[in-house]
């Protein structure tokens, strides 16, 4: 099978210009303008869902499982800060990521990612002039794998633009929760603290279904995945885009998420497109 059978091109004609494509882009832009998040329901066909699920299961043993306590910025504790500072609020994290180098070019996940027009469609939805694939060989396109009891606590993304594709849901739990644009322009520690202590009124709860494509500005919106229940694992593919070419993850964060680093992570350490602390 090919990517043209995995993507519902009748509903989402990403590879051809015309009023139907324009209408899809307009809806996505409106949602992104409202709160930094757009969901394209049923982006994958049933065959696409089945193929990506099978591929994820075939490499599930390659996932890096980690259990730790992290803050929203993936930084170490700083005792010089007040105890209630959000940088000093740490939460249990139990999750797994299947690194990008486990997905072969001819596999369904990369076929979807490499389908003609996919990147340009995402760029047009985001309306970003500076738009590049994440150059990290462990993280440009990955699968997040979560099992019962797992989740991902509140955090900000390193990448400016994150595109996720729901593949398989757990039996219960796993809702996506986010505080839109909470640090657009500055760190906004006071509002971040409210989210962390459960007093914020800015949190949106989103339930994604297999086959849904999500565009999300996670660099600026604090977000988490609620804990899961049941025996069935949750699989979500993550496609990452950034504002500058050649960007890769930091050494510390790459080690945390994938359990290993490559020479490129050390060679490009400290190269960022902005001044945020993570």
Automatic annotation (TrEMBL):
Residues 60-84 are annotated as: Disordered. InterPro entries: BesD/HalB-like (IPR056470), Oxoglu/Fe-dep_dioxygenase_dom (IPR005123). Keywords: Iron, Metal-binding, Oxidoreductase. Gene3D superfamilies: q2cbj1_9rhob like domain (2.60.120.620). Residues 75-84 have a biased composition (Basic and acidic residues). One of its GO terms (molecular function) is oxidoreductase activity. PROSITE patterns: FE2OG_OXY. Residues 121-243 form the Fe2OG dioxygenase domain. It comes from the Bacteria. Belongs to the iron/ascorbate-dependent oxidoreductase family. This is Fe2OG dioxygenase domain-containing protein. It comes from Roseovarius faecimaris.
